[in-house]
From TrEMBL:
Complex and partners: Homotetramer.
Cofactor: FMN
NADPH-dependent FMN reductase-like domain segment(s): 39-181
Name this protein carries in UniProt: NADPH-dependent FMN reductase ArsH
InterPro entries referenced in this protein's UniProt entry, alphabetically: Arsenate-R_ArsH (IPR014063), Flavoprotein-like_sf (IPR029039), FMN_Rdtase-like_dom (IPR005025)
Gene3D superfamilies: 3.40.50.360
Protein family per UniProt: Belongs to the ArsH family.
Gene Ontology terms for molecular function: FMN reductase (NADPH) activity; nucleotide binding; oxidoreductase activity, acting on NAD(P)H, quinone or similar compound as acceptor
Entry keyword set: Flavoprotein, FMN, NADP, Nucleotide-binding, Oxidoreductase
Pfam families reported in the protein's UniProt record: FMN_red
Length: 248
């Protein structure tokens, strides 16, 4: 006698209520991509007057603009340390509004003591993961870059990746790390031609592609089963009952 085919849901605990709410291709296709130019916010982690991370941020801005993006750079001068004042501080409001406006971001940090700078981290620390239904970073694309005084290293970009994950961003695979940055920019602050510059072009191109593919779908992308379950158990149970899916 043929053995009964086991259901793929057999033995799955606590999945019943929302199982059929798992995002479908139809739900994704129903979201039309926006018509405006892709919006990018660039953050960099230095307050120095001649700052190579700022120069690199400007190179990324020029490239993204040349590729059709609408780009803003946030300057951290005057931004208080996290929690040193309230979030209605004008610099904090400026930063939060830019992040909400953005569809993609570039974070450029100097490497300092083998990590991103405090200036870089303080900016992200002022961005709440969510405030009511507003999620300033979630679902946005992110490219990470670093400048160093020493030989090439990936300490800062690795930390920025962890931070991007924490802020629920789509961090693209490519990245830029500029060693001995003082050698790579001319007096006017422009990056010299060469493989390190080409890499920055590659990163911006990849960021643009991922942003075009994912923007307008942040809500869809960050929608999580476990959070729906927490937020609206009654509605999800009703959906389950409606389709005859027994509660486990
Ligand atoms: C306190 C301090 C620590 C630093 N630590 C590192 C480091 O760990 N690795 C490195 O390659 N460069 C290090 N540097 C050099 C900076 O990364 C370099 O000066 C960089 O250009 C600073 O960024 P900015 O030009 O955007 O201000 C350090 C510099 C300072 C002042």
């Amino acid at each position: 006698m043929d053995k009964p085919t086991p259901s793929f849901t057999d033995g799955m605990p606590n999945l019943s209520e929302a199982h059929f709410e798992v995002p479908t291709a139809e739900r994704m296709a129903a979201t039309a991509p926006p018509a405006h130019a892709p919006r990018f916010l660039i953050l960099y982690g230095s307050l120095r007057e001649r700052s190579f991370s700022r120069f690199l941020a400007y190179e990324a801005a020029r490239l993204l603009e040349a590729m059709g993006g609408d780009v803003r750079i946030f300057h951290a001068d005057g931004l208080p340390l996290p929690d040193d004042t309230t979030a209605d501080h004008p610099k904090v409001q400026e930063l939060r509004n830019l992040s909400i406006w953005s569809e993609g971001q570039v974070w450029v940090s100097p490497e300092r003591h083998g990590n991103m700078t405090g200036v870089m981290k303080a900016q992200v620390d002022w961005l709440p993961l969510s405030e009511g239904s507003v999620r300033p970073t979630q679902g946005r694309t992110l490219a990470v870059m670093q400048v160093s005084g020493g030989s090439q290293s990936f300490n800062a970009v690795n930390s920025l990746r962890v931070l991007g994950r924490w802020m629920r961003m789509i961090t693209i695979p490519n990245q830029s790390s500029v060693p001995m940055a003082y050698k790579e920019f001319d007096d006017a602050g422009r990056m010299k031609p060469g493989p390190l510059y080409d890499r920055v072009v590659d990163v911006c191109e990849e960021l643009m592609k991922f942003t075009l593919l994912t923007r307008g779908r942040a809500d869809y992308l960050v929608d999580r089963y476990s959070e729906r379950k927490e937020r609206e158990p009654a509605r999800l149970q009703a959906v389950a009952a409606d389709i005859g899916f027994a509660k486990r």
